[in-house]
Amino acid sequence: MSQLSVEHLLGIKYLTVEDINLIFDTADNFKKILARPIKRVPSLRDVTIANLFFEDSTRTRISFELAEKRLSADVVNFSASSSSVAKGETLIDTVNNILAMKVDMIVMRHPSPGAALFLSKHVNANIINGGDGTHEHPTQGLLDAYSIREELKKVEGKKVIIVGDIMHSRVALSNIFCLQKLGAEVMLCGPPTLMPKYIETLGVKVEFNLKKALAWCDVANILRIQLERQETKFFPSVREYMLFYGVNKPLLDSLDKKITIMHPGPINRGIEITSEVADSDQSIILRQVENGVAIRMAVLYLLAGKKGKV
Questions:
Q1: Which helix (H) or strand (E) element contains residue 22?
Q2: Do 123 and 155 lie in a common domain?
């Protein structure tokens, strides 16, 4: 069996192009399995996986849990709000207590950038980063690129814009790294106040006019405005944001081509995207959700192979 070059999935920046293509090829096989009446395979029957979510999550947590159960793994779910973390226990103590119960792999979401990397250096288990603060969300970056490949047949040479709250988004950084490694051109679009100062050092284009950005691209990946991460106001009002950066049907109809619409979710309907666009035939948002299970199955399966579990 081909193997990944890494023991953990901490971020897209640590993956090679060969790693990404191996994950995609493995996900292709799992998509065929997910289309069958019996969707479960025994690949990880003897593997125990702990899902540690120190931040609220619905889509990512459910997607990972479904992927784990489809692979027949034993699953332990951990919520920080109802744990000893709330009483002051450290991250390493919490994880070591869980590992003492013979857990093989850990999927972790944490509000601190670098938490997954920190953990990988201190515990003996495969770590999968389910999102660390405003840093990376590697499985989302992978499933987004995989969905583009599925829709447009390839990623190389395609023009992709990422629209919205770039500053507070972990999805943006993972998408940039993944798309660039696969040969796509990336442009960012959003209010200047939500564009990090370092961003152009990553080799991306920046455009503040949404219509110009949409006219340039083949794919628009639209991000949620993360009001919960904004300690100060970065734009005058939600209504003003919607007027300048909301993607709506008249705007798409004004283009001289048909572009693919994506969104990592959850969607703020009527703010960054209208329902008419989100539910249109140009949208592959629900397919992203479907592909998320296959991609996470592939990652879990391949990382388990690094420890001889498969």
A1: helix 17-34
A2: no
What backbone torsions phi and psi does residue 77 show, to the nearest 5 degrees? -100, 135
Amino acid in position 172: A
188 and 259: one domain? yes
Domain at 17, CATH number: 3.40.50.1370
Q: How many residues does the chain have?
A: 310
| Cβ neighbours of residue 237 closer than 8 Å, sequence gap 6 or more | none
**Which of 197, 152, 198, 207 minimizes the C-alpha distance to 179?**
152
Domain coverage including residue 64: 12-137+292-306
- Dump pLDDT digits (tens) for 70-118: 999 999 998 765 555 555 677 788 778 877 888 999 999 999 999 999 9
Reported for 205-210, long-range contacts at CB under 8 A and 24+ positions apart, including other chains, are 207/161, 210/163, 210/244, 210/245, 210/247, 210/251
pTM of the model: 0.93
Residue 147 · residue 287 · CB < 8 Å: yes
Same domain, 240 and 297: no
Q: Which residues are within 8 A (CB) of 283 and not within 5 positions of it... i.e. 6 or more apart?
A: 261, 262, 263, 277
* pLDDT tens digits for range 160-217: 999 999 988 899 999 999 999 999 999 999 999 899 888 889 999 999 999 999 999 9
Task: Please name which of 53, 44, 137 lies closest in space to residue 95, comparing C-alpha atoms.
Answer: 53
Displacement of CA 120 from its chain's centroid (Å): 19
* Nearest by Cα to 14 from 196, 138, 147, 127: 138
| Residue 301 to residue 308: CA distance in whole angstroms | 11
Task: Measure the CA–CA gap between 189 and 170, rounded to whole angstroms.
Answer: 16
Together in a domain, 97 and 124: yes
Residue 197 resides in a domain: yes
The β-bridge relationship of strands 105-110 and 126-132 is parallel
